[in-house]
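Q: What structure does this chain adopt?
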Amino acid sequence: MHLTLFSTPVVNRVLRAISLTFLRLNGWTIEGSLPASAAKSVLIAAPHTSNWDLPYTLMTGFALNLNLYWMGKASLFAPPFGPVMRWLGGIAVDRSKSNNLVAASAQALRDADGPVQLVVPPEGTRGRTRQWKTGFYFIALEAKVPIVLAYMDYERKAAGLGPLFVPTGDVERDMEEIKRFYAGVKGRNADQFEAQ
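A:
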């Protein structure tokens, strides 16, 4: 995994203090913590309904002392922003190509030296969608790591980490259980999110 602001010692401490202050001043609460058993894990980023989700996710990551990497569409990494996006923990995903992103991501998690949390939005887009993509599920299953049910509830102004979920391989049943957790969570643009 590449160097990010989460793994840059002095920068990390400064940004953690700034993030905690900003979130507190704006009425946000941070909930939960990452169990030691989830040092390597896949975090679901749901609901993903706004461009504001990225900065709030990064601030929440600092507040919770996480080592986040996140997946974003390739166009976010076009010059001149590519190096900055990667330093923010970004991993470019070219959605126009059929590549084996699941296998590559699972391998990267297995090979990582130390804690790493890969953030994947199950919707695959900020736009309205009724169907969740299952890439996050198969990355966790193949890497043999837990899924952390992370959330950003704009209505309650609460962000954090919910329970751990260990995929069983029964995708349909597991997805139903995961989606139940998100039933009451409201995104910034709540009309674009359905945990169905």
